[in-house]
Write a structure and sequence with these properties.
16% of the residues lie in helices and 37% in strands. The chain starts with 8 loop residues before the first helix and ends with a strand. The longest helix is centred in the first third of the chain and has 17 residues. A hairpin with a 6-residue loop joins strand 3 and strand 4. The strands form four sheets. Strands 1, 2, 3, 4, 5, 7 and 9 form a seven-stranded antiparallel beta sheet that branches. Strands 6, 8, 10, 11, 12 and 13 form a six-stranded antiparallel beta sheet that branches. It is built from four helices and 18 strands. It is elongated.
Length: 352
């Protein structure tokens, strides 16, 4: 997921120019510092791997590339930024600090709250950029409210990080059932230094939107997920080999939707009457079941791509009855764990 920082390069430059003008107009002599997102990597950027608090191991696999990486309950990314200090009279650069912002947001499937942490790592500093401190706050937009915001002033150096931690609650209610809404937390921070005329302009970084709901069949608990399309996994050498082989055949030979690595998604169907109609069309009771076998349909009856709701494009096969029943239960657990709601998209990955 590509990042669009809340503070753009143009906004940061405009804020910096305004600060320089204000300092000149006031007749000050102290330098003015400005902060902005960086586009060019620094040789020391791999320092992102050294973290003051735990982030997922995959967080910095791609380096500091200004991109969020997201799964169903976590989002993490490493972003490059710079502080540039200017002589108030001439505009000459008198100092710099290059740093990384490591953002990490996480939610849970059965809790109405989520968290967002931002860690600022100094990579290099020179001149009037040395000896700076950072402080900030968290805000939330959409169906959410801030319940805790901690980002006190913290000195930065090559071995000292500044950390902000924020907690948010969804504002959707436990009833009536069927509610859902998105919230997006944003971290705001700025830098100070006794050498400077004033603090830097603010810079902001929002995490990917978090969707919370009380609309999940099978539970009354509110839960929150990230904008990631989940995948149901079956294996041909796993617990349900006949089921897995049928799905693989249907995806590869009949070109039916839901295959891993494609954008031909399945979408969940929760209407029980429509699910039964899908099942009856794919596997009518008149179809003979050999002993120990059951009729399995793909796409699943619990999707809008099913035999009836999907326009008649489907495949059926007689498979081991236990595998069919238990594989169906596993799909139900997948829906529940990942909070797959009505018309939510998902894929099915058939592993060897």
């Amino acid at each position: 997921m590509a990042i669009t920082p809340k503070t753009t390069a143009a906004q940061a430059k405009a804020a910096c120019d305004a600060q320089l003008k204000a300092a000149r107009d006031a007749g000050g002599s102290k330098p003015v510092a400005c902060v902005s997102w960086a586009t060019e990597p620094a040789a020391a950027d791999p320092r992102a791997a050294i973290s003051a608090w735990p982030t997922p191991k995959w967080c910095d696999d791609h380096g500091a590339n200004n991109t969020w990486y997201v799964n169903r309950f976590q989002a993490c990314g490493v972003f490059k930024a710079d502080v540039t200090v200017h002589d108030v009279r001439t505009g000459r650069v008198t100092g710099r600090m290059h740093y990384l912002a490591v953002g990490y947001s996480y939610s849970k499937r059965d809790i109405k709250a989520w968290a967002y942490q931002v860690e600022l790592l100094q990579v290099s500093a020179s001149g009037d950029g040395v000896g700076s401190s950072a402080n900030g706050k968290g805000t939330c937009a959409g169906k959410c409210k801030v319940t805790e915001s901690k980002f006190p002033s913290q000195a930065m150096s090559n071995n000292k990080e500044a950390v902000g931690q924020f907690f948010f609650d969804t504002t959707i209610k436990a009833s009536p059932k069927g509610q859902k809404g998105e919230g997006q937390g944003t971290a705001h921070w700025r830098f100070t230094n006794p050498k400077w005329a004033a603090p830097t302009n603010d810079i902001t970084l929002g995490h990917p939107p978090v969707r919370c709901d009380n609309a999940l069949p099978g539970t009354s608990k509110i839960g929150c997920v990230m904008p990631y399309i989940p995948e149901m996994v079956y294996a041909k050498r796993g617990e349900y080999p006949e089921l897995a082989k049928h799905i693989e055949y249907a995806q590869n030979t009949k070109y039916l939707p839901g295959k891993h690595g494609t954008t031909k998604y399945l979408t969940r169907l929760t209407d029980k009457t429509k699910i039964r109609q899908n099942r009856d069309k794919a596997c009518p009771s008149s179809r003979h079941r050999p002993a120990g076998k059951q009729c399995d349909e793909y796409p699943f009856a619990s999707t809008w791509q099913g035999a009836s709701t999907g326009g008649g494009h489907f495949n059926w096969r007689m498979i081991n009855a236990t595998q069919n029943e238990e594989g169906g239960k596993a799909l139900g657990r997948f829906y529940l764990y990942n909070r797959v709601l009505e018309k939510d998209r998902f894929l099915v990955w058939i592993k060897p």
